[in-house]
Amino acid sequence: MRPMREKGVCLMSRKDWKNIFVLLGSLSEKHKDVLVSLVGLSVFTAVRPFITVVLTGMLVDAVYAGAGLERLLRYVAIGVLGTFLMHAAEGVLVMFFNRKLEYMQEIQGQPLNKKSMEMDYEYLENVEVHETRQRLERLGGWSLMARVLSVMNKILREGVTVIAAIFVVAPMFIRGSHSLSGGFVGSWLMSLLLLAAVLLLTMAEFKCGRYFNSKMADTRKQMSGQEARFKYYMEILSGCESQKDLRTCKQQKLYEREFEDIARGIKKTIDRLARYTVQDTFTQHTVSALTGFLVYAFAGLLAFAGLISIGGVVTYAASILLFTESMGRLVYQLSWLGGNSVLAGDYFTYMGLAQRKHEGTIPVEKRRDDRFSVEFDHVSFQYPGSENYVIKDLNLKFEIGEKMAIVGRNGSGKTTFIKLLCRLYDVTEGCIKVNGIDIRKYDYAQYCDLFAVVFQDFRVFDFPLGENVAAGGRVEKERAADALERAGLGERCRALPQGLQTAVGKEFEESGVNFSGGERQKIAIARAIYRNAAFVIMDEPTAALDPESECEVYAGFDTMVGRKTAIYISHRLASCRFCQDILVFDGGKVVQRGRHEELESQEGLYKELWDAQAQYYA
């Protein structure tokens, strides 16, 4: 369970401070000017009010003493000029600081995204890692660094205000300490009693604020879940594909009821949040009023006793109020910094995920004929955190250059077999060899170049068609057009006015084209062809195609892959008949292997699956 600090309502531990300082240290390596501006801005913002406070007291005393106009104007000029210069310096620093914060917000995902692309694939399927990333993304448009800097700015500002107030008020304490007389309690003791009373009120305000903030944090957390449901239903209602099911199944009333339930829940949550906010605000104003009454009453008594001047009352009272208000805000901001320190811990945990995958150095052999031998040598595999073997003691050899199909029931290990071959995961036991060498010893980037994969859950991006086919690299137009032609999209591409420059989808370009699901699958196949890798692996590559297009793909399969090895995963056994080699998986093992004619005539799992599907082919 995560600690209460996540709500931003408790003080910080040593580890929390360490996380914050490490975060600021990493910032200072690249942006020292940000920290300098942070300190300068905090000092100017904190000190500026005291110019007015001190000079106002001096001006009142001067008027009361009957000073001349020249002296009064001098005080006014000093106050106006000092305030103007402080405002000007503060304005420059605010502009610079805010510009840096905006920049950090813009690039907030860059380090996380870079880490996501470089980390071992197993982390991407880890629930805890995924939740950590989600927590870091739920910052309301703020990067963690910008968020911490904003809070640190407030903490430094309130801290400097407290120190400045002490410097202004201290002489009055010292002056009052020399005025003890007889049995009368002197101003020194009275000042200490006042300070104690003010601190007690501040602590009471902090405790009440912590309670209400805890309640509001719980309420916001509940509302975030409600808003997530609301967003989910809005996405359904705004999508044309989901609207087809919504209308044909007559689910409108169901969604109306769901929206009413969500609306009622959100209204109750907002009412509760407003109630806590009002209570918190009332507590703050009450404490502020009591504090102000005590301070001004005490300052008046000191002035009545002749211990301080009338102007001193203004300076003394205003400084004490600034002190108490800043103390309350300082403790409050420290509590929020504690919440951010937990996120900083998440950040360092995520960014510090170690590479477990062995990094080989042997270059992959360059072969003009793309002939490679592959061997699974007593390979077993468990997914991290699982006690069950998905692949168990698998022994298998095959030569590159053939067309191979992999079939079997769901959960039999087919996709895991491909993940291991592509080194998305490393084997738990045994080893996989290519040309007799353990694939973990090869340079990982070079080894990945051997494969062009079309997964069942492929992704086509809202980029120009040519960039989708070239996968982000330099688009060779003739090569891209050839890949689209071989994938069955040549005629469609030639009919597009912008050709390879056509945007896939209308997310960013109004002139874009919304390709159908089958066409998108052909784009993914074209991308695999364009890659020109030794292995072409296709996981249900025709799942989104109509029968005619599927037949077209099968008929042109030789043209698509040429002499390369094609590993084909499918649930439709009829689509495997063109393959020279069929592997039948069951329970993480290959239980049958051969051509379609051989397997179809033998008793076994393949014949069982074939007979079960054949009745639907007629």
Structure in words:
The structure is a single chain. The longest helix has 53 residues, at 252-304. Helix content is 61%, strand content 10%. It contains 21 helices and 10 strands. A 6-stranded mixed β-sheet has the order 6-7-8-3-9-10. A 4-stranded antiparallel β-sheet has the order 2-1-4-5, with helices on one face. The protein has 618 residues and is α/β, with parallel strands linked by helices. Helix 3 (69-106) runs antiparallel to helix 7, helix 8 (187-238) runs antiparallel to helix 10 and helix 8 (187-238) crosses helix 11.
Q: What can be said about the biggest beta sheet?
A: 6 strands, mixed
Number of helices: 21
- What is the number of beta strands? 10
**Which term fits the overall shape?**
elongated
Please, what is the average pLDDT?
A: 78
Distance between the termini: 57 Å
Poorly predicted runs of 5 or more residues: 1-10, 177-185
Please compute the radius of gyration using only Cα atoms. 36 Å
Counting helices, strands and paired strands, the structural category is alpha/beta
Keywords:
21 helices; 10 strands; alpha/beta; disordered N terminus
Offer a quick outline of the entry.
This protein is of the alpha/beta class and 618 residues long. The protein has 21 helices and ten strands. A six-stranded mixed β-sheet has the order 6-7-8-3-9-10. A four-stranded antiparallel β-sheet has the order 2-1-4-5, with helices on one face.
